[in-house]
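pinned: reference chain
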Amino acid sequence: MIQPFKKLSTSSFIIAFCLHSLTSPAQKNPEKDNLQYVDLRIGNVGQLLEPTRPTVQLPNQMMRMFPVRQDYLDDQITSFPAIIVSHRLGQAFALRPSVQPVGAASWKHKMAYDHDLEVLRPHYYSTYLIDDEVKVEFVPGKKAGIYRFEFPKNGHKSILFDQYNNGEGSWKFNGGQEIVAREIYHDDIPVYLYGTFSKAGKTGSVSGENVVPGEEAKGKRAKAYITFPDNASSIEFRYAISFVSAEQAKKNFENEVKNTGFEDLKKAGEQVWAKTVGQIRVEGGTEAQKRSFYSSLYRTYERMVDITEGNQYYSGYDKKVHTTNRPFYVDDWTWDTYLAHHPLRVILNPAQEEDMLQSFVNMYEQSGWMPTFPVLFGDHACMNGFHSSVTMLDGYRKGLKNFDVAKAYEGMKKNAEQATMLPWRNGPKCELDDIYHSKGFFPALHPGEKETVKLVDGFEKRQAVAVTLGGSYDDWAVGQLAKDLGKDADFQKFNARATNYKNLWNEEKQMFIPKDSQGKWIAIDPKFDGGMGGRDFYDENNGWTYKWQVQHDVNGLIGLLGGKKKFESSLDQLYREGLGRSKYEFWGKFPDATGLVGQYSMGNEPSFHIPYLYNFTDAPWKTQKRIRFLLDVWFKDNIFGIPGDEDGGGMTAFVVFSSMGFYPITPGLPVYTIGSPVFEKVTIDLLNGKEFKMIANNCSVVNKYIQSAKMNGKTLNTPTFTHEELVNGGTLELEMGPLPNKSWGVVNE
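pinned: its structure tokens
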């Protein structure tokens, strides 16, 4: 890792950087520190849509930072944020070092950097602005951070401040060494900053096109600056953020960074991350597989984030400040995270997951609805489905009880009975929901038919098949929790609704096909129809992906397809089916459907469970084959190493599970299905003091097929094991070989 440097000669700098390269994280002793394998650059260039961000933060803490730029290919940084407020929904307080005389145009200056001089670690960031010859470093705390700027010895030395949001903001300097700021995020949420500089400077602001000296700046996109003396080459900016009040921002500052130096905060962050990713220890596998694995594990800690400050927090669900005796978490997209992200956290940190589930309950109490995409400003109406219901059931059935289960069920039931199912909409149900409740499917429009329901989003459309399938799963979750809580009438009602998916199964096309409000089939090509992203009928993917969206009733889906053999054959065809057109034409309509293998889309969340469905057939070995292939092809340890929108841990949790050799194929059932591990041994340190071990004897790139298995020393002939066996400290032992054992794991009914 590059150490802070003064102005070095060219030869000295090259020697220093080469030494850094030789001792970079990938070269350390793998037995010492798994943190060495974490590479924030993996996936920093998106296939077609959003890249990953090199997020520097402590695990699940609100202080997040990454340089604002297009992606890793961009060699200019626009600004450095004081805080990333939400994963992809904005930031607050922009910073820019400047070595030119301050003028109104200074804030438009983009900062060129050299990729090879950038250091990206979970707990530390550093870059060298190649034109300006300024080194920028950052270390995060929980609600605070420290920037350090190394300016050239001679010339101007300023830090420029700006705001990202359009509300009325302010900057105020006190004595040239203290700063207090306020920015309005998302129209109505004040974000407060308090900070100090290591040296005093002269301050000012921008008025129109003029730069004026002074200690205060106010207004929309308010701009301010501080210029330091010529002899001040190293400047440290310590600060803290609050969503509660200006006074709390100062308290956060005093609690975290007032008496803590840059190097101390850096070391503390490194220790936290080493302990966090060290909870899972692996042996065997290639260096590339370890890098993909641990980088994915790091990503799963980007969200949700704890926004409690002391014993209080600001809630965007009722726009009030609340007192609390436990953490309150926001920033979660459950359409993505219910599949693997939340289930992974249930294993690694069940107490934290309980706090997150209680946060969901608090949001329901404050807003009247159980959230779907809970962020700082409230429930961000996004995608479709009420998959927080599945997350609640999954946690409860895996032994999590430290949340208000009764209130959670109340919210789940209210969403299921009274909320609109329309994509990208919150609030009460409409006439389309009434059709779902009475007829058991969400109605679609015929191609070319004009929309008559004003509540329908003009871009997102009705997504009628996706809504029906997702609603069936969510209703199943409500019914199952009702059953566990002894609410038999509710169980009967929602268990029946869990089979609504069957109402859209078209026997002729062997696909889920939309119906109109009268129950008549709508003639479509399920491979390509439905407009942008197939959103008239599906969502971001076509009928081939949604053919498998019945995780809660796989046996029922097998029945629709005519039995195990036809089910297996159809799975095979998924990976072999052509696009029927050029890639550019297909992706022009389905840009989310990346990571393609035939019609299978590794780059989008609805596909995660599909390769594991072979475990329900007479060919579990095909799951082993597919998983290894998908991990190897689409999750490389480079800047292109994420095949779709990663969404803050949603996709990389799939990599973590699959690399360990098992997967929660049906969240809501405390059971894992077995794939093909890439490591010879995986040890998970459980917080109950026990260890879960997965041992794969003779495992290698070639030896990917399971020959036989044992759980706790007893022969295991089914490709499943329970959450109870895991948390009790079980040992799953697999014998691996180069050719499939086609009889292992076959379940005879």
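why pinned: Confidence is low (pLDDT under 50) at residues 1-31. Residues 284-737 form a domain with the Glycosyl hydrolase family fold fold (CATH 1.20.1610.10).
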